[in-house]
Amino acid sequence: MATTSDIRNGLCIKYNHDIFKVIEFLHVKPGKGPAFVRTKLKSVTTGKVIDNTFSAGHKIDEVKVMTNKFQFLYNDSDFYHFMDVEDFSQIQLKESALDNPGLLKEGEVVTILINTEDNLPLSVEMPASVILEVTATEPGVKGNTATNATKPATVETGAIVNVPLFINEGDKIKIETDKGTYKERVKE
């Protein structure tokens, strides 16, 4: 059993007969009244995100997990298929287990959290950023870069990302996977 002081991003806990992963947390100590921890939890089975507040010192049931590196192979209509980079075994996961599946390119290596009790995969942790090629966007107008204006661009995985006006088709861009936002243009 853990307590609220052990809460951190990525922690998996049992709560309301389901397994949740902590996405965000904030320890709050008001001037009046007891301290508490405000959390945002994502269900690893349904993908539903809930907000919950735990009082300070509350006991939480931690789920022991191990992490393995997997390579993304492909996705079909129902599942995303991954291969373990060590023993080449394959697993398949539903789209709800992924935080931002639109940014996942074939061949990308991700970290998968696996429950040590039953060896079932819980969730997929993507790298902090991915580099993808822009396949479709409106052409940029020369001199129109004075403001922080953006335009939609479709990347090679099919996801749509807002990018600055100077980005053109064929450019490679770095995208933050947790927010799905443009970070920078990458030179070859």
Automatic annotation (TrEMBL):
Coiled coil ranges: none
Biological or metabolic pathway of the protein: Protein biosynthesis; polypeptide chain elongation
Keywords assigned by UniProt, alphabetized: Cytoplasm, Elongation factor, Protein biosynthesis
GO molecular function: translation elongation factor activity
Subcellular location: Cytoplasm
GO cellular component terms, semicolon-separated: cytosol
Domain Elongation factor P C-terminal: 130-185
Assigned protein family: Belongs to the elongation factor P family.
Known role: Involved in peptide bond synthesis. Stimulates efficient translation and peptide-bond synthesis on native or reconstituted 70S ribosomes in vitro. Probably functions indirectly by altering the affinity of the ribosome for aminoacyl-tRNA, thus increasing their reactivity as acceptors for peptidyl transferase.
Pfam families the record matches: EFP, EFP_N, Elong-fact-P_C
Biological process, per Gene Ontology: peptide biosynthetic process
Domain of life: Bacteria
Protein name (database record): Elongation factor P
HAMAP family in the cross-refs: EF_P
Xref: PANTHER family: ELONGATION FACTOR P, ELONGATION FACTOR P (EF-P) FAMILY PROTEIN
Organism: Planktosalinus lacus
Chief subcellular location: cytoplasm
Domain Translation elongation factor P/YeiP central: residue ranges: 67-122
